[in-house]
Specification:
3 helices, Porin, two-stranded antiparallel ribbon, globular, 13-stranded antiparallel β-sheet, mainly beta
């Protein structure tokens, strides 16, 4: 069993019927504090725990994969016990729609709507996504759990290897490009291949894109939407995270994932809370 499977394990506490009967199921989980940054559990990891419960509630029939998620993060859960409630809203021919809630004590922490389906290993019939040409993984910079020059740990880097494109690292030496782009490779440190559930972690990873705009501080997720488009090929995935709009203490970001066959396998958008500096943003124009 992989480290990820252990960290997302759920135990069914109460179940009534099956997905075809539009019923509910209750689960317990033990949230693992390693899957965190700045001592805050990663949103993608929390969705994967909810997704694990949804998959077990739906069963391994026609819709075994979490294909889409839409979630709001109301409070930051703490590592340790949590309760998950899964409600099947509709079981159709091509998809099952599920509502998932993660609670600690009497407090609702995360609410998500998930679409379960069956993903396949097939190239797209048509796509407008540009062909990528990433650098060799050995040319990219591995990110440690305790990055130099910061006073916090990124526990997630103990279980996920992240290698950043050197072109994305200007912010680390005080020279952000002003493009709002961070890119690199991701793989599980225990050697496990990515699957539709663990890709929820990959779809919410990477240094926040606002670092490349010269902004500091965290960027807690307010709302998160993801789509897994196909089963990933074995090997590391390449991600590109872009900031799209920053203002009024909010930032919208878009992340895309490609597998080792250079196929788009997933994308996510999120609205995050940020602290906007007093000065203007950095220019992406070359110095004269």
């Amino acid at each position: 069993m992989s480290v990820f499977e252990v960290a997302t394990r759920v135990v069914r506490r109460d179940g009534k019927g099956d997905a075809a009967e539009f019923t509910t199921a209750e689960f317990t989980a033990d949230l693992d504090g390693v899957w965190s940054a700045r001592d805050v559990l990663q949103g993608g990891y929390l969705l994967a725990v909810i997704g694990r419960a949804a998959t077990e509630a739906v069963g391994d029939g026609d819709h075994p994969h979490v294909a889409s998620t839409s979630a709001v993060f109301l409070h930051a859960p703490q590592p340790g016990p949590a309760d998950i409630r899964i409600e099947v809203l509709r079981a159709g021919r091509t998809a099952t729609h599920v509502r998932g809630q993660l609670r600690q004590g009497d407090e609702l922490m995360v609410e998500a709507h998930l679409i379960q389906g069956r993903l396949r290993d097939a190239d797209p019939w048509w796509t407008s996504v540009d062909t990528i040409d990433p650098p060799d993984p050995e040319e990219c910079v591995p990110i440690p759990a305790k990055p130099p020059g910061v006073d916090f740990r990124v526990g997630l880097m103990d279980v996920v290897e992240e290698r950043l494109d050197p072109r994305s690292l200007g912010f680390a030496v005080g020279k952000p490009s002003g493009n709002g782009i961070v890119a690199g490779y991701l793989r599980m440190k225990d050697g496990a291949d990515w699957d539709p559930l663990s890709l929820l972690v990959a779809l919410d990873t990477g240094p926040p894109a606002h670092f490349d705009l010269g902004m500091g501080g965290g960027s807690p997720t307010v709302q998160f939407t993801s789509h897994v488009r196909r089963l990933p090929a074995p090997g590391p995935v390449w991600f590109e995270l872009r900031a799209h709009d920053v203002g009024d203490a909010r930032m919208s970001e878009h992340l895309r994932l490609w597998d080792s066959k250079r196929r788009l396998i997933g994308e996510a958008t999120q609205l995050a809370a940020v602290r906007i500096p007093d000065g203007p943003p950095p220019s992406d124009e070359p110095d004269h």
